[in-house]
Write a structure and sequence with these properties.
The protein is α+β, with helices and mostly antiparallel strands. The chain has a single domain, classed as D-Amino Acid Oxidase, Chain A, domain 2 (2-Layer Sandwich), CATH 3.30.9. The chain has seven helices and 20 strands. The structure holds flavin-adenine dinucleotide.
Length: 338
């Protein structure tokens, strides 16, 4: 598939399908996207955080050296390409992780001197005058290379572009309507021929669903939390100040759940480390939840399934940072040598 006439079909317009569609559009390739808005997309529920160091021990995220610069380049370039006026859709953010013990502080202080971590984290001991939001705060691990993408706004801007360019079909994908072209290669969808098909259907992907693990996440928009400034605060969960003054708090990571609704248990888990006086005065102004497509080894699936059929999936809680890389990898498979 090297020539400009090759026609690619993307299934699904969540983060994976959108980043791939934008890479194809920016490279001047011919493509269509089939996506039905009647399906729940994990992407529209995402908080949009890009955090390079995760977990208690602040381990560097998978393929950091490749995926981080790629995502930091891709989103501003894509937003320029889409001519979006809202400059807040993608912003670089400092992430401050609350530290609660001397042991944690000493470990991370030592780690902040390790090769590969030196430019990413630094430790700040708690200033006595600092107002407390969290219980037993002894200091902060500060990371300057975080970022946030307002995912619904990004998807909407891309959707508008795809729609205006005639790339988008708002239709249900049914596997029985996709057939292989026996002679000339490629695939046919409802009578239309395509040279390659890329499934970005999230949990709705019929080919790899047995490999996926559904993990629920809950988010709350809160009033009454005195969080000033653009820094994102992190404990087990995160707090992000929104432009309207509310604070976005999230997300749970639930492997077992009965429904896709936010609940009191999720709220308590997320706000559990906030000091009790503050927690009592919090008001939930909005809440929502979604289901992430995740894999057992927490690595994304970026794969050729068979000749001319590919998939991006299983991005778990890191869809924002992984999707630009996944799209670039699929581009290499589609157009080798370019
Ligand atoms: C509460 C919550 C918070 C999160 N926060 C973050 C965060 O802060 N940072 C981060 O990086 N990630 C976060 N994530 C994870 C992120 O949302 C996912 O990794 C990512 O959205 C997965 O994108 P996707 O394109 O693979 O799947 P999806 O977004 O699910 O997209 C699938 C697409 O396929 C379409 N579709 C499915 N089936 C069909 C069909 N049969 N016919 C037609 N169309 C179909 C859907 O409509 C959708 O457009 C969060 C997730 C949740 C739930």
């Amino acid at each position: 598939m090297n020539d400009k006439t090759s026609h690619v079909l993307i299934l699904g317009q969540g983060l994976a399908g959108t980043c791939l569609g934008l890479r194809l559009a920016m490279a001047g390739k011919k493509f269509s996207i089939l996506s039905s808005s009647s399906h729940d997309a994990a992407s529209v529920k995402a908080a949009g955080l890009m955090n390079p160091v995760t977990g208690r021990r602040m381990a560097l995220t998978w393929k950091y050296d490749i995926i981080w610069p790629m995502a930091l380049d891709f989103y501003p370039a894509a937003l320029d390409f889409l001519k979006t006026e809202n400059k807040d859709i993608f912003t670089i953010r400092t992430i401050r992780k609350a530290l609660h013990s001397t042991e944690e502080m000493n470990f991370l202080e030592a780690k902040s001197a390790w090769a590969g971590y030196k430019d990413i984290i630094r430790i700040e001991r708690k200033n006595k005058k600092e107002e407390d939001i969290f219980e037993n705060l002894s200091g902060w691990a500060i990371c300057n290379s975080g970022a946030r993408l307002q995912v619904p706004e990004f998807l909407e801007a891309a959707r508008k572009y795809f729609s205006e360019q005639g790339n988008l079909m708002d239709e249900e994908f049914l596997p029985e309507n996709l057939s292989k072209n026996p002679n000339e290669g490629g695939w046919t969808w409802n009578g239309q021929a395509f040279d390659a098909v890329i499934s970005c259907l999230g949990l709705g992907c019929p080919w790899i669903s047995p490999e996926l693990w559904a993990v629920k996440g809950q988010l709350f928009a809160l009033e009454g939390l005195p969080l000033n400034g653009p820094d994102i605060l992190k404990t087990e969960h995160f707090l992000i100040r929104l432009q309207d003054g509310r604070v976005l708090a999230g997300s749970t990571y639930e492997r077992e759940f009965e429904n896709n609704e936010p609940d009191q248990k999720g709220f308590e888990l997320i706000t559990g480390e906030i000091i009790p006086e503050l927690r009592r005065s919090l008001k939930i102004s909005e809440s929502w939840s979604g289901i992430r497509p995740t894999t057992h080894d927490r690595r994304p699936i970026i794969r050729r399934l068979e000749e001319g059929l590919f998939a991006i999936n299983g991005m778990g809680s890191k869809g924002v940072s992984i999707a630009p890389f996944a799209a670039a990898e699929i581009m290499k498979l589609l157009f080798p040598g370019e």
